[in-house]
């Protein structure tokens, strides 16, 4: 599936941007293990990444946070503003929690830890290509903890505020938010909740509007802050 919900033709096209050649090579090598993913371009800084996205129109751009000239977050903001058909996955380290928050604000949909498992990179690229958010529970918990330790307010206050926002959702919207928090795509949510995908898309739009957030990853953070439990696993047949 593509980010607009239509069936994608051919492999998922990916741009990889990192100023360290060895990191780029490693990311490319991991992605090459999936025959359904194709790296179509590489960039060594954020400015070049934006230019490569314009030239190649990939489904997903994998951007390092720290890059020369234009950093990954500013590049993500430009990509999401001018080329919304390309989803953005950020590569971060655990020491860059504030950067994760900034990236959320500009519309990045995926957050991967450089020290994570290769399978997470594949899953993250696939999820964002499908229009979903990829925010692992580990990353979400780290973001929430960081918010509590900064001037953004005490954790208890943030939890109360998140719960108040969630209280305005309908039961069905709350179900959808739980699945967003788990990083599922519209198609996956539709199958889990036995709905048509168009109905799920409408629910997702309503959830984002009611929560006052701009993207699915930010909604996932609200879900974690509010303590919404993850959805049960699909029934085994």
TrEMBL record:
Entry keyword set: DNA-binding, Phosphoprotein, Transcription, Transcription regulation
Family annotation (PROSITE patterns): HTH_LUXR_1 (PS00622), HTH_LUXR_2 (PS50043), RESPONSE_REGULATORY (PS50110)
PANTHER family: TRANSCRIPTIONAL REGULATORY PROTEIN NARL-RELATED (PTHR43214:SF24), TWO-COMPONENT RESPONSE REGULATOR (PTHR43214)
Name used for this protein in its record: Response regulator
UniProt keyword DNA-binding present: yes
Naturally occurring in which organism (per UniProt): Streptomyces rubiginosohelvolus
Keyword DNA-binding included in the entry's annotation: yes
Species lineage: Bacteria, Bacillati, Actinomycetota, Actinomycetes, Kitasatosporales
Residues modified to 4-aspartylphosphate: 64
Domain Response regulatory intervals: 13-129
Domain named HTH luxR-type: residues: 162-227
Pfam family, one: GerE
């Amino acid at each position: 599936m593509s980010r607009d919900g239509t069936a994608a033709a051919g492999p998922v096209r990916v741009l990889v941007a990192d100023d360290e050649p060895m990191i780029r090579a490693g990311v490319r090598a991991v992605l090459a293990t999936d025959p359904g993913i194709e790296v179509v371009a590489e960039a060594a800084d954020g400015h070049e990444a934006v230019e490569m996205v314009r030239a190649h129109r990939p489904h997903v751009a994998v951007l390092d946070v720290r890059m020369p000239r234009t950093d990954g977050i500013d590049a993500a903001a430009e990509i999401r503003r001018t080329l919304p058909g390309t989803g953005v996955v950020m590569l971060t380290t655990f020491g860059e929690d504030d950067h994760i928050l900034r990236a959320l604000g500009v519309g990045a949909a995926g957050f991967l830890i450089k020290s994570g498992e290769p399978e997470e990179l594949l899953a993250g690229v696939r999820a964002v290509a499908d229009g979903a958010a990829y925010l692992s529970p580990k990353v979400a918990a780290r973001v929430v903890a960081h918010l509590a330790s900064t001037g953004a307010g005490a954790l208890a206050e943030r939890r109360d505020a998140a719960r108040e926002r969630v209280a305005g959702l309908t039961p069905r919207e709350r179900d959808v938010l739980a699945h967003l928090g788990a990083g599922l795509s519209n198609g996956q949510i539709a199958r889990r909740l036995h709905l048509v995908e168009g109905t799920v898309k409408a629910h997702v739009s309503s959830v984002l509007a009611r929560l006052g957030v701009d993207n699915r990853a930010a909604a996932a953070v609200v879900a974690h802050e509010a303590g919404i439990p993850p959805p049960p696993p699909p029934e085994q047949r």
